[in-house]
């Protein structure tokens, strides 16, 4: 008579093994020697494998629903059939190993990028759109869930920001996500959010984006190269002087970077991209 632990482990293996209940039953038998015939009583209504399949299919469907909820725009763009195909393939290849379903779809953008056909036209945004849109949607979800600046006591900037360069310590809120995209997705996203139409696929173009949350509302903002680099450097722990030195180029020396930063920083703070403390 198998122990309760063995029975639970057997059923979990049957339900969650990539490939379905039959493959799970084979793996469970190899693991602990328990068979379907020995574990499930025969019934006139349905054979044991069919009854186990109800649980295994239900488990997969629940995971699929979570993935579809996390990527609603991608699901609209790809269509139910195509999205379902890639979602199920992802769930088989990257099964859930986390106690929270929030982590389930974290690797979906990379999965779509890795499974893009190898010989694709780099000038055709259609091939890039699924993975790039998935990156955008995942970042949006993470910005919604992570700690934001809502409860942070902001340090008020002085009337002359030049006098506060050394005194102010700039930080990037945990909820901010910086994206280096291959498609300009902000206009595309805005059309998708405000209408039932599917926007035309944008043409490939490097697009730097910050997704932030302020007053519990998530928003996306286009960034210039130096703005993206400054935020990235600050996130890595640099102070504003170190960051401006890292960002500086021959055409944009440190002094100009610092000046532009101090002019832009109050607006960035209002957008929730940075917070300050002494």
Automatic annotation (TrEMBL):
Protein name per its UniProtKB record: Putative DNA-binding domain-containing protein
Organism, as annotated: Dyella nitratireducens
Lineage of origin: Bacteria, Pseudomonadati, Pseudomonadota, Gammaproteobacteria, Lysobacterales
Domain Putative DNA-binding, first and last residues per copy: 44-112
Family matches, as Pfam families: DUF2063 (PF09836)
InterPro entries: DUF2063 (IPR018640), DUF2063_N_sf (IPR044922)
């Amino acid at each position: 008579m198998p122990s309760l632990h063995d029975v639970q482990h057997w059923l979990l293996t049957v339900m969650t093994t990539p490939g379905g209940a039959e493959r799970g039953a084979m793996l469970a038998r190899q693991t602990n020697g328990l068979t379907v015939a020995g574990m499930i009583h025969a019934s006139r209504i349905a054979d044991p494998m069919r009854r186990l399949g109800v649980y295994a299919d239900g488990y997969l469907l629940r995971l699929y629903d979570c993935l579809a909820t996390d990527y609603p725009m991608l699901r609209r763009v790809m269509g139910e059939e195509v999205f379902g195909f890639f979602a199920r393939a992802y769930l088989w290849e990257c099964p859930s190993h986390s106690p929270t379903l929030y982590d389930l779809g974290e690797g979906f953008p990379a999965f779509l990028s890795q499974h893009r056909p190898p010989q694709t036209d780099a000038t055709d945004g259609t091939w890039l759109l699924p993975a790039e849109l998935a990156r955008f949607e995942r970042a949006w979800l993470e910005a919604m869930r992570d700690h934001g600046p809502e409860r942070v006591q902001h340090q008020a900037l002085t009337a002359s920001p030049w006098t506060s360069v050394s005194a102010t310590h700039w930080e990037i809120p945990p909820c901010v996500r910086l994206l280096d995209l291959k498609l300009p997705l902000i206009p595309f996203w805005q059309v998708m959010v405000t209408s039932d139409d599917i926007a035309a696929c944008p043409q490939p173009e490097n697009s730097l984006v910050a997704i932030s949350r302020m007053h519990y509302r998530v928003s996306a903002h286009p960034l210039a190269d130096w703005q993206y680099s400054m935020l990235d450097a600050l996130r890595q722990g640099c102070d504003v002087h170190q960051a401006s030195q890292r960002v500086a180029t021959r055409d944009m020396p440190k002094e100009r970077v610092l000046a532009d930063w101090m002019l832009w920083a109050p607006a960035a703070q209002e957008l929730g991209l940075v917070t300050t403390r002494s």
